Amino acid sequence: MSDNKVKVATCSLAGCFGCHMSFLDIDERIVDLINHVRFDRSPLTDIKEVGHCAIGLVEGGLCNEENVEVLKAFRENCDLLVSVGACAINGGVPAMRNNIPLEECLETAYVNGIGVVDPQIPQHEDIPPLLNKVLPIHEAVHVDYFLPGCPPPADAFWELLTAVLENREPNLDYSLRHFD
Amino acid sequence: MEKVNKRQINWIDKNNKMTQIPTLLCMTSPSVPYEIGLTEKHLNELEADHFNGQLNRKDLLQFLIAIQQRFGWICKDAIAWCSHRISQLETGISEQEIRGIIDFYSFLEKEACPPLHLHLSTNVTDYMLGQQDHQAYFETLAKEYPKRFRVTNTSCTGLCDQGPAALLNGLPIPALNNSIREAIRKLVEEQPAKIDVAATFPTPQDNIQLKDQLLNRQLQSGNAIKRVMTNPAEGFLGELNAARLRGRGGAGFPTGFKWQTCADADASQKVVVCNADEGEPGTFKDRVLLHSHIQQVIEGMTIAARTVGASLGFIYLRFEYQYLLPMLTAAIEERVTQNLLGDAILGEEDFNFHLHIHLGAGAYICGEESALLESLEGKRGIPRIRPPFPAQAGYLGYPTIVNNVETFCCVAEVALTGGANFASRQCEGSTGTKIHSISGDCERPGIYELPFDTTVEDILKLVGAKNTQAVQVGGPSGKLLFPELFHEPVNFSHVSSGGSFMVFDESRDLFNVVKNFTDFFHHESCGFCTPCRVGCGVLSETLDKFAKHHASDDDIQHLREMMELMDVASHCGLGQTAAHPVRFLLEGKPDFFKNKETTDSVVKIDIHEETSAARELHLANAGESHE
Ligand SMILES: Cc1cc2nc3c(=O)[nH]c(=O)nc-3n(C[C@H](O)[C@H](O)[C@H](O)COP(=O)(O)O)c2cc1C
Ligand code: SF4
Ligand code: SF4
After folding, report:
1. What's the confidence (pLDDT) of residue B29?
2. Which of A34, A120, A161, B483 has its Cβ near the most Cβ atoms within 10 Å?
3. pLDDT tier at B621 (50, 70, 90 boundaries)?
4. Which ligand 3 atom lies nearest to the CA of residue B526?
5. Are B320 and B280 in contact, with CB atoms under 8 Å apart?
6. What count of CB pairs under 8 Å joins A to B?
7. What is the ipTM of this complex?
């Protein structure tokens, strides 16, 4: 399936999918977008492996080993890698665990927590090991653009994508990067 | 008193007089090993003996240090007791606030401490002399006897020419070696009730290698003051200006100007402070001056008091130098009996000067003059917003001059031989001589007093340094110089220095040197402002990435941005200079960073290391997937 459309991949690492939801808030403009881009690996397509893409949008930070693997594949396959939202940029809410030892965190959630049934720390080869600390993605790979916000407004996504399609530098209006 | 800064007048009593300050706040000598069982009785006694029976807010730090030094830590009950006692005055203090003070100073402990506590110095010169080895040894010892012995680290102890150095319950032990550590092990094993540290271990040496006017001077106490007293008080300002004396503490501020400001201020009380905090790593000349030239220091302070009209003085002595306390106390007492201190000095009416010693408790930032004043007032040492400058409103709001130990020695010299004479030895406007503390890779480290036209190269020859790769002049906040600049003279117009001079030969990895300095700033940042508090951490962690070969070009870019931000946005000199070591190396020898960049072009973290906690909990396969 070769076509001239620009390929875009997206993923959510340690994020809440809020950034993806905000992206979808471009509403009917998505129809225009689809005329110009093709989505590669993304929760929107359910493609599992990322192929070569022009743009990779990464929501969420790194909290486990699998996140790092996905990010690595994105970096290797995407010409432009974009760090999307507070979690990808700073670690965000998941990084609140960074000041608490991992063991304590897990015990609070799975052993000592209120209403926990059959208390035990989950352990299985299919569960990717957690990182010592939640990291922003630029700690691990080179990032080309940062879209700030929790989540970034739909118009910010729109500006980013249209700028890349039009081959110019994206430029976010003040209102798109000011959140008071 | 209208001019007094509002924020600081809390502790001035209603009669507008200084509340009485006990002669010496810190007379309790450290106890080795620490005594056990602090009780209310001890606290009452301490208060009665040294604090006039009423603990004041401004005495709090000294009181806490006294407890620390006798009992090794400050328990919850002691904190509650202090809070209760002080809260009986109109200016109360909560327990939380006291805990905040304890947390601020690195030698104060809130947790129970075993009877012997060894602090190993972490200056780069200590490491160059094999500190790591001793660290490992003592950590093993501490594991063997956790209830009897603890080992932790501390910033430069001012014994760089006789390292690796340590403090045992606050008292210095220079030149650690195998027999010293065996001796310490023996103490831990045998648990004697009393240990005379000075008699058991070597004591710090002056190690003066080259003397000039200041170090040759053997002052007959009172002679400098007597010469000054032939003129009216302000007369000495003229001499100072003629001498063109500039401060020796690092910043090189014109002393005459500072004193003039203070003399001009209209206030019921003024204060003279000697900055003996000597925290800049690699500096140890103030220690030697205090030890062997204390008459010049006190004489300089007394002259300052007369000139600006101050009757109260403090020597702010860093915790690491408390072993000098008995000697300094004796010197002060002797001068009181000679009528060179106290009221109506040498019969001159209104010439009163009462000198006290305050101890620091382990905080480099307290060398910064406004932080020092906060600390003198018994608070956390957070630098003040200026203006008002200390000379306008300093200790408790009174106009205060703060000068370095060596500056006061110069003052005594100016008084003895005249300003014009002092200025006759000059180089490009820097007058007099400068005392350097030299350490690192050279044959003859120690104290050197040198004229201001001495170049870096001259110094290196003098001290017997070979194959020198770089020199750090002025301490970590100074400059890292490479051979291209060795022809520069060390003076205020070229390479300015507070007296630290550390030599690194070609065998050294300068990256580790810079990392050591950056970690120092990270540890010593007072935490008040974000650019410095966070910035120091970011620098330190980014350097860690280089050390582990996980960094890339991006990280160099991050370093540059952070350095820029810290320079322009930090509140005080610490944050403004904390990035300088990184900057000098990055600009001078970028290869030290380049050759540590990652070889993995994609992922810059080590997944094995990043999952170490999960592996410890057996939640990950022992690194199988990523080896
Ligand atoms: C972070 C920092 C630490 C300082 N440490 C010291 C010190 O240990 N000793 C010292 O004399 N001056 C130190 N200073 C300089 C003092 O703020 C002040 O300029 C000096 O004591 C003035 O004395 P001088 O004019 O005689 O040099 C430090 C400054 C900063 C910013
Ligand atoms: S940035 Fe906000 S919206 Fe996006 S993943 Fe994080 S929490 Fe969710
Ligand atoms: S620059 Fe650093 S040391 Fe100075 S006030 Fe700010 S945090 Fe404190």
Report:
1. 66
2. A161
3. low
4. 8
5. no
6. 59
7. 0.85
Classify B208-424 by CATH class: alpha beta
Average pLDDT rounded to a whole number, residues B370-381: 97
Q: What distance in angstroms lies between residue B251's CA and the mean position of ligand 1's atoms? A: 7
Residues with CB under 6 A from ligand 3: B 365, 383, 525-529, 532-533, 570-572, 574-575
Nearest to B452 by CA among B466, B438, B433: B433
Report yes or no: B602 at the A interface, CB cutoff 8 Å: yes
Instruction: Please report the domains of chain A, with CATH numbers, ordered by start residue.
Output: 6-97+133-176 (3.40.50.700)
Contact call for B610 and A72, based on CB within 8 A = no
B208-424 and B430-508 in the same fold: no
Lowest mean pLDDT among B45-54, B74-83, B233-242: B45-54
* Separation in Å, CA of B343 to nearest CA in chain A: 56
- Asked if B532 contacts B282 with a C-beta cutoff of 8 angstroms, the reply is no
| Interface contact flag, B603 A65, Cβ < 8 Å | no
pLDDT for residue B324 is more than 70: yes
- With an 8 Å Cβ cutoff, are A129 and B615 in contact? yes
- CB of B51 within 8 A of CB of B22? yes
CATH number of this structure's domain B430-508: 3.10.20.600
Q: B4 pLDDT exceeds 90?
A: no
* Residue appearing with tokens 């040492």: B381
Measured from the Cα of B533, ligand 3's closest atom is: 7
Point out the ligand 2 atom lying closest to the alpha carbon of residue A86: 1
Chain A positions contacting chain B at CB under 8 Å are 65, 68, 71-72, 75-76, 101-103, 106, 121, 123, 125, 127, 129-133, 135, 138-142
Report pLDDT digits (tens) over B479-521. 999 999 999 999 999 999 999 999 999 999 999 999 999 999 9
pLDDT at A107 over 90: yes
Architecture of domain B511-594: Up-down Bundle (1.20)
Which of B248, B262, B275 should be mutated for ligand 1, with most atoms under 8 A from CB?
A: B275
Taken in order A124, A118, A134, A11, the sign of the CA dihedral is positive
Give pTM, 2 decimals: 0.87
C-alpha B16/C-alpha B5 separation (Å) is 14
pLDDT for A110-126, tens place per residue?
Answer: 999 888 999 999 888 89
Which residue's C-alpha comes closest to atom 8 of ligand 1? B278
Residue B330 has pLDDT above 90, yes or no: yes
